[in-house]
Design goal:
With about 150 residues, the chain is mainly α. It has one domain. Helix content is about 70%, strand content about 0%. The protein has 7 helices and no strands. α3 packs antiparallel against α7 and α4 runs parallel beside α7. The longest helix is centred in the middle third of the chain and has 26 residues. It is globular. It starts with a helix and ends with a helix. It holds the Pfam family PgpA.
Length: about 150
């Protein structure tokens, strides 16, 4: 069961699984909340906390078999992309910019993101992507505030 969660229903076995998982998350978000914010702060915080807890547990459980932060574990990309789009009124351009920003931060790992990977176990697996999502979210909100998005 934990392998299924960690790989997000098998996406982690696909070449480029991290990007595929982030794109799948974007498509799902777009389908369930076209043109608006799906959840307000309270429910969004509960769902985010649940996703982070489940992802951390799954990443921790598969670490013994697959090693630290295996490429197969993509629940962290889904969680990071979710954080990146949290409370962002969704449009096609915002979703695309969010995806590009998130993948940039996730791959390049600037601004303490790489440091998060050093945290132990499943926490380290999840937190670098969560921080990439936080930076994505902040830039998306800044772009909306300034009228660019």
């Amino acid at each position: 069961m934990f392998k299924l969660i960690a790989t997000v229903l098998g996406i982690g076995y696909v070449k480029g699984g991290g990007t595929v998982a982030a794109v799948a998350c974007c498509l799902l978000l777009y389908l369930v909340r076209p043109g608006g914010v799906l959840l307000h702060l309270g429910p969004a915080a509960l769902l985010t906390g649940g996703l982070l807890a489940l992802g951390t547990l799954a990443a921790q459980r598969v670490e013994g078999a697959w090693g630290k932060d295996s490429y197969r574990v993509v629940i962290d990309e889904v969680a990071g992309m979710w954080v990146g789009m949290l409370l962002v009124p969704l449009t096609g351009p915002r979703l695309l910019v969010g995806l590009v920003l998130f993948r940039f931060f996730d791959i390049v790992k600037p601004l303490f993101i790489r440091k998060m990977e050093q945290l132990p176990g499943g926490v380290g697996v999840m937190m670098d992507d969560v921080l990439a999502g936080v930076y994505t979210n902040l830039l998306l909100h800044a772009g909306m505030y300034l009228g660019y998005l």
